[in-house]
Amino acid sequence: MTALRPERESAPYGGEAAYGGAESFEAEDFRTRPPADPPQQWYAPPQAQPQEMDYSQGDWYGRRDYTEPSYEPRRTPYGEPFENYEPTAYQAPPPSAYEPVVHEHPSVDTAQEHPPIDEETVALRVEEARRLAAEAEALQTPPAPGGRAARRKAARRHGRHGGSLGAQAGSGAAHGPDKALGAAGEVSAPLSRVEARRAARARKPSMSVVASRAIGEVFITTGVLMLLFVTYQLWWSNIRAHQQAGREATSLQEEWRSGKRAPGAFEPGQGFAILHIPKLDVVVPIAEGISKSKVLDRGMVGHYDKNSIKTAMPQDKTGNFGIAGHRNTHGEPFRYINRLKPGDPIVVETQDTYYVYDMASILPVTPPSNVSVLNPVPPGSGFTGPGRYITLTTCTPEFTSKYRMIVWGKMVEERPRSKGKPDALVQ
Predict the structure, then answer these.
(1) 3 state SS of 204
(2) Active-site choice (158, 326, 335, 388)
(3) What's the whole-model pTM score?
(4) 235 versus 78: which is more confidently predicted?
């Protein structure tokens, strides 16, 4: 504000005397300090108010007793006479963060010009701007060079919407264990050290979980091994036993035809005859001894020899020819001997003779220690005196070896090979 200069002002209201003289303005310069308090509105000199005219004594045009209107003396914006005005230095109050700033022009809407700041709104806008920028950058990605296969591979690598599949699928791993994902997939503030340790302990399995996993793996491994063992016993052992028994029978028949082997004593494990059970379609070699590894597990039938319980040979004039075989696994030649009925033929083929027996009786269950079933005249067989008998022994029930099953037969025919096969083998 420019200071008033009395030498250039006219004095319609009293001149310099109204302001206290020129010396009052020279004593202090108003430009050095502002007024004490900012005015509420711009200063304007008061308008002169004309006095009421008394038209009874005269009119406005000065006819008759016309009186000139008078004016009140000038006053400051604070209502004081201008002669007594003493300007003071302006002291602005300290701004307060909790009080709104009063605008000098109340006609301007400050709420519309400067809206209040919402931190949450600002944060959402920042994240939205980042997302829009990422999408724009993804859209500006140049197409993959090459043909359709190359573009398809690039699409799989960058994802359907331009982002990397690895970054989309493993966003948690990409941000590390100290950062968490928000509900919309944005990365939240990093976790504190205590929170990171708690998250790491939560991800680490407990001892009970580790123990249950180990026990489960042991059970699964045991189950697989048992399944393999059962498969070997019930399937593979039969295949191998049939192959070994077939080779032994073929070799034995070739030796008979060539005349290399003569009847007599045989070594343990050595085949000397072939057993035929036509009703059960069984053709299996008979070897000396009842050893599991050398005879029975190889799919053959074993003769009770002097190393176990001495029994007669088929060519003996009297006696009991005792043989043993598996009912299950390892060729299982005696699996269905319980189906034999009295009178069913059982044929023993040797190098020069066929010995034909008729099935006589069966003992379904007996203890393994009952060796009397191999006696020359076995008790319970129905035989009353010495004769030429055959005894078949095997385990029972199936897939166990708790008890023994016994089948007896009586010789009915001794036929030389020169006369051909007996009727039981021809039918």
Answers:
(1) coil
(2) 326
(3) 0.53
(4) 235
Query: Of 204 and 301, which is predicted with more confidence?
Result: 301
Instruction: Please provide the size of the chain in residues.
Output: 427
Residues of the chain with CATH 2.40.260.10: 242-260+268-426
> Cβ-count burial of 233 within 10 angstroms (0-12 exposed, 13-18 middle, 19+ buried)?
middle
Residue of 287, 297, 291, 278 whose CA lies nearest to 336:
278
Cis, peptide link before residue 397, omega less than 30° from 0: yes
Instruction: Say whether 388 is catalytic.
Output: no
| Cα Rg of the chain, angstroms | 63
Q: What is the pLDDT of residues 228-284, one digit of tens each?
A: 988 888 888 889 888 998 999 898 888 888 877 666 668 888 899 999 999 999 999
63: left (phi over 0), alpha (psi -120 to 50) or beta: beta
pLDDT in tens, 9-29: 444 444 444 444 444 445 455
Q: Which of 314, 399, 397 is nearest to 352 (CA)?
A: 314
pLDDT in tens, 135-152: 877 776 665 555 677 767
User: Is 326 one of the catalytic residues?
Assistant: yes
Question: In what helix (H) or strand (E) does residue 256 lie, and over which residues does it extend?
Answer: helix 237-258
Of the candidates 14, 20, 11, 6, which has an alpha carbon nearest to the alpha carbon of residue 86?
20
What SS3 class is residue 410? strand
Among residues 276, 298, 330, 395, the one annotated as catalytic is 395
- CATH number of the structural domain 242-260+268-426: 2.40.260.10
Distances from the Cα of 69 to the Cα of 50, 62, 77, angstroms: 5, 12, 24
DSSP-assigned states of every residue in 217-234 = HHHHHHHHHHHHHHHIII
Is 213 a catalytic site residue?
A: no
Question: pLDDT (tens digit, 9 = 90+) per residue, 93-150?
Answer: 565 544 555 555 544 454 444 555 555 544 456 677 787 888 877 776 665 555 677 7
Comparing CA positions, the residue from 362, 286, 358, 351 lying closest to residue 325 is: 286
Strands 388-396 and 319-324: parallel
